[in-house]
Structures are given as C-alpha cells and as structure tokens.
Amino acid sequence: MFDVKKYYDVDNLGVALSLLSKEPHLIVIAGGTDVLIKMQHGWNQEETELLGINRIAELKGIRMLDNGDIEIGALCNFNQIEEDATLQENIIPLVEAAASIGGPQIRNVATIGGNICNGVTSADSASTLFAYDAKLKLSTERSERIVPISEFYMGPGKVALESGELLTHIIIPKESYEGYQGRYIKFARRKAMDIATLGVSVNYRIDEASGCFEDLRIGLGVAGPTPLRCIEAEEYARGTKVSEEGIAGIAGKAVLSSHARTSWRASKEYREHLIEELVAEALLSITDGVRGEEDE
Amino acid sequence: MNRMQINFTLNGKDIHLEIEPGETLLEIIRKRLGEIGTKKGCGVGECGACTVLVEGRPVDSCIYLGIWVNGNDVRTVEGLAAKDGNLSEMQEAYIEDGAVQCGFCTPGFLMSATAMKENGRKYTREEVKRALSGNFCRCTGYKKIIEATEKGLKS
Lengths: 296, 155
Hints:
heterodimer, A: alpha+beta, Uridine Diphospho-n-acetylenolpyruvylglucosamine Reductase, domain 3, Enolase-like, domain 1, 3 domains, five-stranded antiparallel β-sheet, four-stranded antiparallel β-sheet, 32% helix, B: alpha+beta, Ubiquitin-like (UB roll), DNA polymerase, domain 1, 2 domains, five-stranded mixed β-sheet, 5 helices
C-alpha cells in the first residue's frame, strides 16, 4: 500500500492542467515506475496527493507533423516507442534507447515524459533527445512554451518545470534527423533490468564530396550530473575525415565535455574510458559504408 | 482517506470494488480477492514475480496502482487453465520440461510467456530471452524455462 492521500484520475488534458494550476503541490504520475519507487523510499513526510494522467489519450500518440517534425506524446510508453514505424524509420537511436530500458513489464508502463521529467542523467531516452536537439512542449492552464531539452535539466533530479506546468509533447525537428544516421549504445552490467553505467547516443550527416563529417552530435548519459552534449568533439568533427583515425580523434575529444564521477557502479576513470571507447564504437558501427576506401 | 470505485474483470469475472488510492493491483488480487497465485517478490518492479496481464500486456502488479485497471481486463495465473481444469499449453510445457524448481517465479514467467504466445509472433531464442528478461528465477533454472517457453510457443 502506497501512502496516497488523494488521487485524481484524469482523462482530459485541460482538466489536468486546471487541477495542476489550482493545486500545484500535486505530484504528477504516469506509469509510476519512478514515482512509486520514490514514494516507497519515503520522499515525503506527509501523505502524497497524486495527479494521475495516464488516461489522457491526446498525449499518447507519435506522429509526423505537416512540417516534418516528429511529435511524441509525453505518455508514450517505451514499448510503443520501440515498435513505432515513424521512429524506426527516422530516429533509430531512440528506438534502441527504448529497447534498452528495464524489461517488458517496465516498458509497457514507463513513459518517455516521465523518463525526462524524473531528471536523472541515466535516463536512456534523454541522451538521444539531447543528441537530436529535441524540444519540449510545456503547458500550463493558460500558456504554452517550447524549451530545448538542453535547457530543461537543471541538476540531478531537477528540471525546469514551473509550478502548474506539465510536459505534454517532445518534438524532434525535421532538420535534426533528416539525412542523419545514428546509434545508441547503453553500457550496463546486464542486458536487461539495469541502469546505464554509461549511455552514448551519436548521429551524423556526411559531406559526400569530401568524405568528411558535415555535422556530428554526441549525447552522453551518466557522464555528468545531467545528460550532456560533447561540444568540443562535435566542433572537432566538422570537416574531419570519416575514417578510423578521424573517429579516434573525435572519441578522444568527447571526454573533454564530461564530468563523470565515481559511484558504486563505476569509477570516474572507467567512465571516461567508456566514453572514448563507446563513442568510437558507435561511430564505427554506422560508418562502415562510408569508410570503404581507407583500407586500400 | 478518499476511497475510489473500480470495475474490472479478473480472469473473466466482473469485479466491483471500493479501494484506497494507494492500493496496488497486487494487493487487490492477493488480499481482497484471495487469488494468491500471483506472488510478491521484490516489490519494486524488478523481479517479475507479480507479473499479470492487463489488456493482454504483462505488467508488474506490485508497482501498478489498482485504480489503473478500472475498465480493464486483468488475467492472473489462475485464469490460464480452461474451465474444465485442463492446463494451458504453456503450463503443460513448463511441467513437461521441468521448468519449475521452487515455483515462486513460475506464475510470473507463465504470464510473460502467455502474452508472447497470444500475440502470435515468432520468437528466436534471443527474443525469448529478451521477452522473459523482466522475470527473475533465483533458482537460476533459466535453461529449462527458456526451453519450455519455446515448446509452449510451438504447441
């Protein structure tokens, strides 16, 4: 039995936002795989009042908008994301990240919105959303704003949601995915039911004429207190030859952006080693076709 | 305490209950309805001993609020056998292959395996392992469980 004083079971976004505005102390719960675990560990002295949003149908879809942007409802669960044709076609790393989370029972209930709003650096979906410059649609009863995901994470467990505000959609702009190849690698001790020791999400676009990276983006999870981007490596990559040597150089630079720390899961040094190895592995695994000539 | 009304079906039977908002589906199934085939293991959604099917999909009932099944179809291990008492093909496969040691994890495994069978997909060995990855067997009898699941999927 969880210590819940009151539960609002809401199936309409307007009603949810109105309640959240009147009673900003309400804890929003969707799949509950983070919220309920935190409650078990006594995060609140008083009994909790929950706003249950998992019946709001309009937040459960994945669709391509007229302008080509892909909009993901905050209540999409990871099973749905893993199986979604639009994402499979356009944003493979997000599908790979979804597939790496928990086990089937967790993926059937855990939502992408919850994964992000929980604010932890190990959220498997977050590094990929960082790497694709995702935008978050935050709504209150009266207003709506769009925030880049890079500005959403304030610190461990802290996100930029204001009082009465709810994450409703995640938007991946067309220019972020069109023409890009990507890969997500989760490094953990087990293949399932584990938290990432490190998560690496890369994507790139190539300049066909020169065989160089035209653009490269690297998102890391558990490489710092929040998910982060490897700015130094990304700058270095632009114009760098797509070759084993070029990739090794990029991977070396990726460590510069990290703020890894030692925890019981892994030491700082081990995590830094993983960053370099996994950035290289991820890039090598998706550039086979374009690195064809270097052996000659 | 603000009590709530829920209606759902458990193994085909209509259930109407007044519950407290913090009650889990596991507590409702075991304590209120007395169906104790579904086990409580870790209590934090890691071991899968409490796996039940909600609308045909496996969920960990220990971290699933009872209020969420309002209007839904819920199935537990008690609902796998036919009305005449004949066990399901998956249950028979588990018995034939000796996929049960202490038995505590078995109801959860059976529910995950039943969900696989009912969705009609073909599974490779690796896919079987992945589909069962949310269920732990601490006797570590995975080999027999995987083989039995494959047999149950084929029969």
